[in-house]
Amino acid sequence: MAILVNGEPKTVPAESTVADLVRILGLDKAACAVEVNKRLVPKSKHPQHALSDGDVVELVTLVGGG
Fold first, then answer.
1. Domain of residue 14, residue span
2. 66 lies in some domain
3. CA-CA-CA-CA torsion sign (8, 28, 46, 65)
4. How far apart are CA 20 and CA 24, in angstroms?
5. What does the alpha-carbon distance between residue 32 and residue 30 come to, in Å, rounded to a whole number?
6. Residue 36 counted as domain residue
């Protein structure tokens, strides 16, 4: 399935969820916010929120430092 993640085309397995995408990207241990088609998906909903072909995903992680 083809989706757009932060402006970059990505291919993910069919029936992937937001949680699957976060894991595929290696960000499952990071604090992150996910928006699918301009709608925020709360972290508690990541495992249930199915992705669809053509979805536009914006993913933001927190970076510490000073």
1. 2-61
2. no
3. negative
4. 6
5. 6
6. yes
Q: Are 6 and 59 in contact (CB under 8 A)?
A: yes
State the pTM of this model.
0.91
What confidence tens digit (pLDDT) does each residue in 9-61 have?
999 999 999 999 999 999 988 889 999 999 999 999 999 999 999 999 999 99
Q: Which two tokens stand for residue 41?
A: 């998906």
* CATH value at residue 57: 3.10.20.30
Q: Please name the residue that has the structure tokens 């995408």.
A: 21
In a domain, 55, yes or no: yes
The structure tokens 């993640």 sit at: 5
Instruction: Please tell me what DSSP assigns to residue 38.
Output: T
